[in-house]
Design a protein that fits this description.
CATH architecture of the largest domain: 3-Layer(aba) Sandwich
Shape: globular
Largest sheet: 9 strands, mixed
CATH topology of the largest domain: Aminopeptidase
Order of helices and strands: EEHHEEEEHEHEEEHEHEEEHEHEHE
Strand content: 25-35%
Helix content: 25-40%
Radius of gyration: 21 Å
Oligomer: single chain
Number of domains: 2
């Protein structure tokens, strides 16, 4: 699969299988600090069913890999039903090739490929402070969900009868809790039972799964990354949102750390519950989830309506992003 366009020298687009995997590994390491060596990519392509056959698109100039744009195809829930999402990840260009149109041409080529593959909507995550943010706006992407996070010192509380069961792998119970919590929501609600293990192939998102119970009744779960200085809640879900504050307090009692951080949550009921324990995402935020339709120009309002953002039921967390 080769696509050409004129520049000072001939530049071509190639898929992952058409380039040197060592060049890809070096480009990803320099751009993001990611380990995308051949072994890691084989595991991702085999186990993450959202990876397309082509995995990522590369700009090649005289056999030199100078840019990358990758994509994945998760399913999201919209007002029109389940929809194939084209999620852009891994946009990077060699430093000496920036500001020369490489990333724009790669994005346009990947947009073309995602349309051919049947994606009904496109998305990407970025930071407002990055130069690339302006590129995405010029390509028709709209702000849909700001990233939020909050950090504070860990506190200690009187025990409330909530037990924290530590797991290293996904369980059927956790999956059922997620399905119950996500009922009626929009956005990133479609997951398979081994979602956590698959996400950790990309990046060490979590170290433990906390499952909360009271009198042997499951209340919810949290995906946690625990380090020497602090504990990070990447997502926390309880079918009854009013149980979230008690589960956060149980986490604080469980981990002997200095700080607790809670990352992005988008649902109004979760944000309200986190606010009662001073962990609601702060606004404004530099990070943002952006979306656009595959063809033509669409408004930010229409996209937010499509994914349920206007109803306060849009669901998206830090573990949903690529």
């Amino acid at each position: 699969m080769i696509w050409q366009f004129p520049m000072s020298r001939m530049m071509r687009f190639r898929t992952y299988d058409e380039v040197d995997p060592r060049a890809v590994a070096n480009l990803a390491l320099a751009g993001f600090g990611w380990n995308l060596d051949a072994y890691s990519v084989r595991k991702l392509r085999r186990q993450d069913k959202n990876c397309p056959d082509w995995f990522a698109m590369y700009a090649v100039d005289d056999e030199d890999v100078i840019g990358q744009v990758g994509a994945a195809y998760p399913t999201i829930q919209t007002a029109e039903g389940p929809m194939k999402l084209g999620y852009i990840w891994g946009v990077t260009t060699q430093p000496d090739k920036t500001q020369k149109g490489v990333a724009r041409k790669l994005m346009e080529r990947v947009h073309e490929q995602m349309r051919e593959d049947g994606a009904g909507i496109f998305a990407l995550s970025t930071m407002r402070s990055l130069v690339a943010h302006g590129l995405y706006v010029s390509l028709g992407y709209h702000h849909v969900q700001p990233y939020g996070w909050n950090q504070r010192p860990i506190r200690k509380y009187k025990r409330e009868g909530i037990r924290v069961n530590i797991r290293k792998r996904s369980t059927t119970q956790m999956f059922e809790l997620y399905r119950t919590f996500s009922k009626g929501a929009f956005g990133f609600v479609h997951r398979h039972p081994k979602f956590v293990e698959t996400r950790c192939l990309w990046f060490p998102y979590i170290s433990e799964i906390n499952v909360f119970t009271r009198d042997d009744e499951p209340l919810g779960y949290a995906l946690v990354l625990s380090g020497k200085r602090g504990v990070v809640i990447r997502e926390i879900f309880c079918p009854i949102s009013s149980n979230i504050p008690g589960c956060v307090r149980a986490i604080e009692n469980r981990y002997q750390r200095r700080n607790i951080t809670c990352l992005s949550h988008s649902r109004d009921d979760v944000i309200k519950a986190l606010g009662s324990v001073d962990l609601a995402p702060e606004r404004p935020s530099f990070g943002v989830l952006m979306m656009r339709m595959p063809k033509g120009r669409s408004s930010e309002k229409s996209i937010k309506k499509l994914v349920g953002k206007d109803r306060g039921r849009f669901q998206f967390t830090a573990t949903d992003e690529y």
